[in-house]
Backbone:
């Protein structure tokens, strides 16, 4: 844990603090149908044209039910669109490698995964997806699912800030304005910066390179029918083979990676995601990608403060998020820097830490920081393989996801997730002092608390229920890459990631099987939509309430007490729900690894 | 019911419009500017012979094993390693017997190749698989430990090799970001073009 790394951490948090206000102010304009931005001269003609084609009156607000219906219909239609594109990949253009269609279960899993902003990768990226599939079938959702998340967050904030008015804004307007004024311009700029660092953006077929030094490898010997030949000891026979060529995957990567990061989608262009040198070429590109994960989510807390007229509340929510984030990052970093006792006994330099699955250009610190931010947000891009992290280093990303990804969180999803915890925090505070809980002048009733609990419990049920099912089923065990307690962690991580719409993985788990593809797909749908609908119901209910004047007994939603109470609520609920499962996975593995137990 | 149908048509139309703008205009715009402004990077930072033949990429490791080349980190990409169409790591965890066995073998091989004593610590990056399986970098200490072997095989003075390593070392960006790393692809390429003695 070098001083340079501490400075990097400080710089990271300082830059986030500095961009929160400008991004927040920009969001205020974007999320207002009458807002003004400096992009108006270029973008507003396109915006008006889009409204005309869609037949929308941008001044027409929608109730929470109408807003939710539009969101659900767009999700269903675009999900089917992607499913069809993936199934028909072999017949469609921009497929220079002649890649075949995806199987029905893989296409279902992938279409759902991108629709729900999860971007789980049961597929292999460069080995599975044609350029058209990457650019259209997948990237479309990178934009729309991000815009939907931001829209839902905005609708909830509007519900909190207005009174006796059922209209929460217009879904289609939020979708179009967020995409046109925020995501597209930011991504264009970001993509070009990434290319300058070495990221690819082309439509060329995969390049064939003649190796500088031919490579001799031992491969399994096969007969004419392609069956592996076994020796007398039952093991496969090996034969030496000389490889003289490296085939290099190409494609329109930068345009997709920019939205993948800014939209906290996280689905990698390449199988290795942001660990791939093309997908994350330099420490600078890595730092910018880490910033982009939090940029919009961080700005949304300022939007919350500005819209509700209580800027201190916005900053308090931000502070609670950052405290949780830094704590997680330091624990993960410490665990990875410490390495594993086993490898040090074998003669590895102890100062090097745990480098399995990590890239030299990022080193321990940037791998740990990336892992923490990608799971604190619902991004799910990875620049190192979480499966190979030390037990406690891997526990941090896992626990981050299980907390509900409310530490800054996914674009929009993080804020509306955190606001559910805010409602619970003021409810708990209300119970403690024996008053009806209030939040920004609105009385919080049984309905809001019930809906909040529904949104949280549904996540827990999906994560623990599916993991238990997989752990007790042959189809679940069949996918494991690591036996022992680490195997349970692999399954727990998979269903946490799917339900939390994160998309990162303990990637050794083989999930491209019909059982995993379908169960993970269902977990993603549950985690996205059974969370959004109760939250929109809360927004609708709060919007109709009258303002109650603040009194001496009102619990303030800013300042140290509130921040601590909010952190406490998040950690307590997460710990109560998941500590038993975590104890059987990473925690027990930590103690066994210390004793040198191997599986 | 009527509004439902109107909204359904809206959803379909929005899908098409956004496809056109976000998945057509946007990637083409990025492509056009990237190809004009950063053609080498946008096409994969390829290494070419003078006659134009592609020999690899400065960003993607190849599986060097001759004593006269610096060796990359172990690779779990594809069945035989360093497969640039199948990136990925081993995904083996800290309590994996398979990983422990592999590391033990690699440590022994690394010490034997580079003439290290059995008690000498080995750089972690030299014996662990990277996340992508294509990591083109090795740590400066890993390069320094391999330098005597390469120097002997190439009959180059060690001092000259150390200068060469220095030249292919990427310092932390802005003096702060990331760890120093030695690009093995450009370094090995430079070795081949260095004058033989």
Residues:
């Amino acid at each position: 844990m070098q001083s340079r790394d501490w400075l990097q951490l400080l710089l990271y948090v300082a830059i986030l603090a500095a961009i929160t206000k400008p991004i927040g102010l920009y969001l205020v304009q974007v999320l207002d149908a009458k807002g003004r931005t400096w992009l108006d001269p270029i973008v507003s003609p396109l915006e008006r044209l889009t409204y005309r084609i869609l037949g929308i009156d941008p001044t027409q607000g929608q109730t929470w039910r109408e807003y939710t219906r539009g969101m659900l219909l767009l999700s269903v239609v675009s999900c089917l669109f992607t499913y069809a594109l993936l199934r028909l990949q072999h017949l469609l253009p921009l497929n220079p490698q002649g890649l075949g269609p995806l199987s029905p279960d893989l296409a279902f899993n992938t279409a759902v995964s991108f629709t729900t902003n999860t971007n789980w990768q049961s597929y292999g990226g460069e080995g599975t997806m044609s350029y058209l599939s990457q650019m259209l079938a997948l990237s479309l959702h990178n934009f729309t699912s991000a815009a939907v998340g931001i829209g839902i967050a905005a609708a909830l904030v509007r519900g909190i800030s207005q009174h006796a008015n059922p209209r929460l804004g217009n879904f289609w307007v939020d979708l179009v304005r967020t995409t046109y004024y925020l995501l597209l311009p930011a991504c264009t700029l970001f993509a070009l910066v990434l290319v300058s660092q070495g990221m690819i953006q082309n439509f060329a077929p995969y390049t064939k390179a003649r190796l500088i030094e031919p490579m001799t490898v031992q491969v399994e010997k096969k007969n004419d029918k392609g069956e592996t030949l076994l020796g007398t000891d039952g093991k496969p026979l090996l034969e030496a083979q000389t490889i003289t060529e490296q085939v290099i995957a190409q494609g329109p990567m930068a345009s997709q990676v920019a939205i993948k990061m800014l939209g906290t989608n996280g689905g990698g262009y390449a199988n290795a995601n942001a660990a791939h040198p093309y997908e994350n070429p330099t420490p600078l590109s890595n730092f910018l990608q880490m910033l982009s994960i939090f940029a919009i989510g961080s700005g949304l807390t300022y939007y919350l403060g500005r819209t509700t007229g209580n800027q201190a509340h916005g900053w308090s929510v931000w502070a609670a998020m950052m405290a949780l984030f830094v704590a997680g990052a330091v624990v993960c970093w410490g665990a990875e820097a410490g390495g594993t006792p086993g490898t040090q006994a074998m003669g590895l330099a102890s100062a090097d830490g745990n480098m399995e699955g990590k890239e030299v250009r990022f080193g321990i610190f940037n791998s740990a920081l990336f892992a923490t931010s990608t799971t604190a947000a619902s991004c799910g891009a990875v620049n190192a393989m979480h499966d190979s992290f030390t037990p406690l280093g891997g526990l941090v990303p896992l626990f981050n996801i299980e907390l509900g990804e409310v530490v800054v969180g996914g674009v929009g999803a993080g804020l509306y997730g955190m606001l559910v915890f805010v409602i619970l925090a003021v409810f708990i505070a209300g119970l403690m002092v024996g008053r009806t809980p209030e939040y920004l002048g609105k009385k919080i009733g049984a309905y809001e608390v019930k809906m909040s609990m529904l949104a949280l419990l549904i996540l827990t049920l999906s994560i623990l229920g599916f993991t238990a099912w997989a752990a007790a089923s042959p189809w679940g065990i069949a996918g494991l890459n690591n036996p022992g307690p680490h195997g349970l962690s692999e399954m727990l991580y998979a269903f946490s990631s799917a339900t939390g719409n994160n998309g990162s993985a303990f990637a050794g788990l083989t999930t491209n099987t019909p059982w995993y593809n379908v169960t993970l797909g269902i977990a993603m749908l549950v985690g996205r939509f059974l969370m959004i609908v109760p939250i929109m119901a809360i927004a609708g209910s709060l919007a109709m309430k009258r303002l109650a004047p603040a009194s001496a007994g009102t619990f303030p939603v800013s300042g140290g007490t509130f921040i601590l109470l909010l952190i406490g609520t998040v950690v307590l609920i997460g710990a109560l729900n998941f500590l038993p499962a975590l104890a059987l996975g990473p925690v027990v593995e930590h103690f066994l690894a210390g004793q040198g137990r191997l599986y | 019911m009527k509004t439902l149908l109107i909204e359904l048509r809206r959803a379909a139309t929005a899908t098409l419009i956004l496809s056109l703008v976000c998945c057509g205009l946007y990637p083409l715009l990025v492509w056009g500017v990237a190809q004009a402004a950063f053609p080498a990077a946008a096409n994969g930072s390829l290494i070419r012979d003078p006659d134009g033949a592609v020999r690899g990429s400065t960003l993607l490791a190849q599986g060097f094993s001759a004593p006269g080349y610096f060796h990359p980190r172990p690779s779990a990409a594809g069945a035989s390693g360093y497969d640039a169409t199948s990136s990925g790591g081993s995904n083996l965890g800290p309590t994996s017997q398979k990983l422990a066995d592999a590391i033990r073998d690699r440590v022994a091989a690394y010490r034997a190749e580079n003439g290290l004593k059995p008690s000498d610590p080995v750089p972690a990056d030299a014996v662990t698989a990277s996340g992508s399986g294509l990591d083109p970098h090795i740590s400066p200490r890993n390069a320094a430990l391999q330098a005597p072997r390469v120097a002997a095989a190439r009959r180059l003075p060690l001092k000259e090799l150390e200068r060469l390593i220095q030249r292919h070392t990427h310092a932390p960006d802005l003096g702060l970001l990331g760890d120093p790393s030695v690009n093995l692809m450009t370094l090995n390429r430079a070795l081949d073009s260095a004058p033989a003695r």
Q: What stands out?
A: The longest strand of chain A covers residues 207-220. The two ends of chain A are 30 Å apart (CA to CA). Chain A touches chain B through 137 residues (CB under 8 Å). DSSP finds 18 helices and four strands in chain A.
